[in-house]
Amino acid sequence: MAQALPGATAVNIAVMFSDRAVGPLGPLAALFGLIVPSLVIAIGLAGIATQLAAVNVRFAAAEVAVTAAVAGIFISNGLRVIAQLWSETPDLQAVWRCARVAIAALGIVMVAGFHVFIPLTMLVLLALSMLLEWRVYNILTSTMPPRHPDPSTSSGEGPTLSDIDESQA
């Protein structure tokens, strides 16, 4: 069933094409057209599964087994993301890398450990991640040496492409 639902590639292509073909409202219509039918189907199947689990004991046991498998996949993907977060930024201080890993681990704990509603978990992780990355960005930009403009240019923004071309001639 997961292969029948739209994935990231389909969404990206729909958004890019609709933006070029229709304009600014095109991506919203494309996302709506891709997401809503799948959402309606998923809600319908969840309702059917809930009714079957209440009536049939074997179906309830199978549902528990599938839930355990999905939890394992979720934890495995979370650990992969943690490893990727750690290894992709070796130039970043360890404290910031640890904070990124802690946010990813928090997602695993919230969903797999405390059974927090996934959209709520995503909002919490998004807020924490944005706060952390904003702080890292501010620290990195404050430690960078300031760019001194070239006094010979009139705009004060440094040399332009034509200035570079003239100096090489």
Please give a structural write-up.
The protein has 169 residues and is mainly alpha-helical. The protein has 2 domains: 8-55; 66-142. 77% of the residues lie in helices and 0% in strands. It contains 6 helices and no strands. Helix 2 (26-55) packs across helix 3 (57-88), helix 3 (57-88) runs antiparallel to helix 4 and helix 4 runs antiparallel to helix 5. The radius of gyration is 25 Å and the shape is flat. The N and C termini lie far apart (63 Å). The model is unreliable at 161-169 (pLDDT under 50).
Give helix and strand order, one letter per element, not per position.
Answer: HHHHHH
Outline the biggest β-sheet: none
Stretches with pLDDT under 50, minimum 5 residues: 161-169
Radius of gyration: 25 Å
Number of helices: 6
How many structural domains can be distinguished in the coordinates? 2
Strand content: under 5%
Structural class: mainly alpha
Helix content: over 70%
| Count of distinct strands | 0
| First-last Cα distance | 63 Å
Morphology? flat
Task: Provide the residue-averaged pLDDT.
Answer: 79
